[in-house]
Structures are given as structure tokens and as C-alpha cells.
Specification:
0% strand, UPF0175, 4 helices
């Protein structure tokens, strides 16, 4: 699917149309990921970037890549500790 966006020339003075398109796709992917609409993999595919590039963009925009509930994380750690203790 192709989407056409009209951009006034004044916004393309220091950037090519292709670079602007890439930035818009990455920005949209970041927003959709942050909103929970895209998984990390889907966001990477949408933006046309690898995971390293996407995760770096997340870091730059202060978007958490892992969203663990503190209680859930505590429960996971407790389960891991119990599993390790029982295997000794």
C-alpha cells in the first residue's frame, strides 16, 4: 500500500524527500509501539529498520522497550529463585 503525503517545499530544504519519508515512518512506528498498537517486530518492519536502529530510536525518545509491571517482575524473580533452590 502506498500513502501519499503532501509536504510544503519549505520543509525539504535540508533533507531529501526519501529521508523525510524514512523519518516519518520511524516516527509513526515509535508512536504506534509506545501506544501498544505495534510489537517491536511490527514497528521495525513498518519503519524498515533493524531492531538495533529501532531500539536506539526508542532510547533517544525515552520509550521503554520492556514494560514490566513491578509486581509481575517480582513474581518472576521469586519463581526463578525457587526453581534454582529446588534444583540444588
Amino acid at each position: 500500500m502506498e500513502v501519499i503525503v503532501q509536504v510544503p517545499d519549505q520543509y525539504l530544504l535540508d533533507i531529501s524527500a526519501g529521508e523525510l519519508a524514512a523519518r516519518l515512518k520511524l516516527s509513526a512506528a515509535l508512536l504506534m509501539f509506545r501506544a501498544g498498537k505495534f510489537s517491536a517486530g511490527a514497528a521495525c518492519e513498518f519503519a524498515g529498520v533493524d531492531r538495533y536502529t529501532f531500539f536506539e530510536a526508542c532510547r533517544q525518545h525515552r520509550i521503554d522497550v520492556v514494560d514490566y509491571d513491578p509486581d509481575e517482575l517480582e513474581a518472576d524473580f521469586s519463581a526463578l529463585i525457587q526453581r534454582d533452590a529446588s534444583s540444588c
